[in-house]
Amino acid sequence: MIDKYINQIIQGDCLELMKNIPDSSVDITFADPPFNLGKKYNGYRDNKEFHAYLDWCRRWIYEMVRITKPTGSIFVHNIPKWLTYYASFLNEVAYFKHWIAWDAPTAPMGKSLQPAHYGILYYAKELKETKFYEIRYPHKRCRNCNYLLKDYGGKKAGLHPFGPLVSDVWTDIHRIKHNKYRDEHPCQLPIHLLERIILMSTDENDIVLDPFVGTGTTVIAAKRLGRRFIGIDIDDKYVHITKDKLLKESSNSKIGDIWVSFYLDEIITIRDIDWEKLVPYFLIPENIKDIDFKKIKLNKQGRLVKYEKNMVLPMFNQEATNSR
Ligand SMILES: C[S@@+](CC[C@H](N)C(=O)[O-])C[C@H]1O[C@@H](n2cnc3c(N)ncnc32)[C@H](O)[C@@H]1O
């Protein structure tokens, strides 16, 4: 029954549409709902009454949990104010894993500290069964001198060549700053934010559902990483933009057989378990302590694979065409 929704972008109210999705049938659900801050969307009016907004949120959050598999996870992105309520809803029906603080400036609200993070609530449908992969990001370096920013003292010999494990504070992924990378949408998320979430919580071919897909960030990340997807948005214009963008995407965010997340030609998220298979594609200093001032780079084979990844895989483009 879920098959007809796979790799589709559906226009409509997510609460109504999710009712058609069977229990425990998708691997992860990710929601980036309207924040009720009066943002100017194409059609949606972002100004519900306080209790009406929360009641609405509770209903789609419960639907997300219902349709997620026992091995799956539920992610919800919002400002901390709303996440405190969402957590109380989720605590009733799922299991808390993390409050991920995504370091990105947000608008101040009256007399307040300068808000500097969005939260991503990360819940497991069933704690014991949940799928989770540790992930790594590249070492942070001084832009001018290339030295590692963090002082590892006498522990440099134990450094991981690629970079540290990702914590629950994400400071290396930034909001989309340049208009040339933006669609006509007021709150588009960066694709590599979603790629990190997807690499951490799913496997190839798993199903990722986003009930507020906007201009397609989640489904594009899923497609690039060889996952299946379902996207819903109430706005026809955003649905069209997403479908058009999907046509131009391929499932090739890979080095060799390994799915990785790229940003501007740099690999910025890998899964820890994949590292051994990725090693042959990198130039790694013989003395690991040299990582302190030498960044690892893709070797000739790695660069070749990266070049080939730009080739379009016809099978996936055909699927996107069918979903129009
Ligand atoms: C914060 S935006 C999502 C942006 C998206 N993450 C992206 O990166 O493009 C919220 C989206 O929810 C959509 N929306 C509002 N009410 C909805 C509903 N009842 N069902 C489905 N989508 C809805 C809006 O049209 C808007 O595109």
Topology (elements, then pairings):
Layout: E1 8-11, H1 14-18, E2 26-31, H2 50-67, E3 68-78, H3 80-93, E4 95-103, E5 117-124, E6 135-136, E7 169-170, H4 191-201, E8 207-210, H5 217-224, E9 228-233, H6 236-247, E10 254-255, E11 258-259, E12 261-263, E13 266-271, H7 275-278, E14 282-283, E15 297-298, H8 300-308, H9 314-322
Parallel strand pairs: 1-9, 2-3, 2-8, 4-7, 8-9
Antiparallel strand pairs: 3-5, 4-5, 6-13, 10-11, 12-13, 14-15
Helix pairs in contact: 2-3, 4-5
Quick overview:
By secondary structure, this protein is α/β, with parallel strands linked by helices.
> What is the succession of H and E elements?
EHEHEHEEEEHEHEHEEEEHEEHH
Describe the sheet with the most strands: 8 strands, mixed
The termini sit apart by: 19 Å
Poorly predicted regions are 311-324
The total count of strands amounts to 15
Structural class: alpha/beta
- The CATH class label is Alpha Beta
**Rounded mean pLDDT score:** 90
Reading side by side through the largest sheet, how are the strands ordered?
A: 1-9-8-2-3-5-4-7
Would you give the CATH topology? Answer: Rossmann fold
Beta-strand content estimate? 15-25%
CATH superfamily: Vaccinia Virus protein VP39
Report Rg.
20 Å
The helix content is: 25-40%
How many domains comprise the coordinates? Answer: 1
Give structural notes.
- The two termini are 19 Å apart.
- The chain has a single domain, classed as Vaccinia Virus protein VP39 (Rossmann fold, 3-Layer(aba) Sandwich).
- Helix 4 packs across helix 5.
- Strands 1-9-8-2-3-5-4-7 form an eight-stranded mixed β-sheet, sandwiched between helices. It has a three-stranded antiparallel β-sheet with strand order 6-13-12, with helices on one face.
- The chain is globular.
- It is built from nine helices and 15 strands.
- The protein has 324 residues and is an alpha/beta fold.
- A hairpin with a 2-residue loop joins strand 10 and strand 11.
- S-adenosylmethionine binds next to strand 9.
